[in-house]
Amino acid sequence: FRRVFLEKYFLESVRHAKEAEFMRLHQGGMTVSEYAMRFKHLARFYSQAVSEAWKCRKFTEGLRQELKRVVVPMAITEFLTLVEKTKVVE
């Protein structure tokens, strides 16, 4: 359904731009909540089917170093849990 919706309502160039933005996304100066919201928004444009574990790895890769150092050893593979634990660490 998601793919059909995106194909119907978004130009291909816009989808590609959003997908590229998703692949480059890093937390930077955003809070964890802001980063998670942006991540979820842009993930909708990613053209490949992804596992929950992949989503967690991608989210973790984009975190600031000080958060990543604490969160990576937790080896969390459920996205919502990862976001909540990262908010606590922040």
UniProtKB/TrEMBL annotation:
Taxonomic lineage: Eukaryota, Viridiplantae, Streptophyta, Embryophyta, Tracheophyta
Any matching Pfam family: Retrotrans_gag
Domain Retrotransposon gag per the UniProt entry, residue ranges: 1-65
InterPro entries: Retrotrans_gag_dom
Organism field: Cajanus cajan
Name of the protein in its database record: Retrotransposon gag domain-containing protein
